[in-house]
Design a protein that fits this description.
The chain has a single domain, classed as Rossmann fold (3-Layer(aba) Sandwich). It is α/β, with parallel strands linked by helices. About 45% of the residues lie in helices and about 15% in strands.
Length: about 240
C-alpha cells in the first residue's frame, strides 16, 4: 500500500460491514487514517480495524448511535475541533421495508432518524471545523431507491432521496471553501441487506445481468475522496449496472 499520509483522516460513518467496510479498506489502502464509526457490532468493527492494521494502516473505531444528536456531538464534536477530518463518507443506513398502508410509525421513524437525521447530526458536528480548515471531501452513500423509488420502501426511498437533496444544497454552501460534496447511488449490491432479495426477478432488470459488489462502490468513493484533479461537485453518481440512468 502507499506510504501512509499521517495528515489525512477519513471519517467513515457506518464502516463495519458491507459497503462501508469496503470503503474503509479502500481508503486505508490509499493511505488515509480511518475513523470508523459503528452502532453496535463490535466484532465486525474490530475485524475491519484488524484488516486495516494488517495492511499497515491506522484505524480508530468509534461506537455511537448517529440517530442520537447528543451522542454524535459528544463523540465527534470535540474530536473534529481538535483535528477536522479531510474526508467524510456518510454510509449509515437501515431498512424497515413494508407497504406504506401497513408501515408503522416506528418503521418510518427508525429509517428516517438513522438515514437522514443522522446525516445532519454528523455533518453538524464536523462542518464548522472543516470550513475553518478550508478543505475536505464529503461523499454520501444514497441509493437508486432514492432516485427512482422502490415499492415497499417508501421510508427508505424518502430518506435516500432526502440525502440527494441535502448533498446538492450543501455543495452550494461549502464549495467556495474548497469542500467538495457528492453522492453515490448504488443499485443492487451483494451485501447482507440484499441477500434475501429475489434475484431471479431482479436480474432481468439490470443490463449487466448481475448484482454489484461492495468493492465496485468503494472504487468510485475512493476516486471522489482522493483524486487530486477534481472538478466533480454536487453530483450523484449511479453505481447500478445500468438499472437507472
Amino acid at each position: 500500500m502507499p506510504k501512509k499520509d499521517k495528515e489525512r483522516i477519513a471519517l467513515v460513518v457506518g464502516g463495519s460491514r458491507g459497503i462501508g467496510r469496503a470503503i474503509a479498506l479502500r481508503l486505508a489502502r490509499s493511505g488515509l487514517t480511518i475513523w470508523l464509526t459503528y452502532r453496535g457490532n463490535h466484532e465486525a468493527a474490530q475485524g475491519v480495524k484488524a484488516e486495516i492494521e494488517g495492511m499497515g494502516g491506522v484505524c480508530e473505531t468509534l461506537c455511537f448511535d448517529i440517530s442520537n444528536y447528543q451522542e454524535t456531538e459528544t463523540v465527534l464534536g470535540k474530536r473534529a475541533e481538535e483535528r477536522p477530518p479531510d474526508v467524510v463518507v456518510y454510509n449509515a443506513g437501515i431498512t424497515r421495508d413494508n407497504l406504506l398502508m401497513w408501515m408503522t410509525k416506528e418503521e418510518w421513524d427508525a429509517v428516517l432518524s438513522t438515514n437522514l437525521d443522522g446525516f445532519y447530526h454528523v455533518m453538524h458536528a464536523v462542518m464548522f471545523p472543516m470550513l475553518q480548515a478550508k478543505r475536505g471531501r464529503i461523499v454520501v452513500v444514497s441509493s437508486t431507491s432514492g432516485q427512482i423509488g422502490q415499492a415497499g420502501q417508501v421510508n427508505y426511498s424518502a430518506s435516500k432521496a432526502g440525502l440527494i437533496g441535502a448533498v446538492k444544497a450543501l455543495a452550494r454552501e461549502v464549495g467556495k471553501r474548497n469542500i467538495l460534496v457528492n453522492a453515490v447511488a448504488p443499485g443492487f449490491i451483494e451485501t447482507d441487506m440484499t441477500e434475501d432479495l429475489p434475484k431471479d426477478k431482479l436480474l432481468p432488470l439490470i443490463p449487466l445481468q448481475r448484482f454489484g459488489n461492495p468493492e465496485e462502490v468503494a472504487s468510485v468513493v475512493n476516486f471522489l475522496c482522493t483524486e487530486e484533479h477534481m472538478y466533480v461537485h454536487g453530483q450523484v453518481i449511479g453505481i447500478n449496472g445500468g438499472l437507472a440512468g
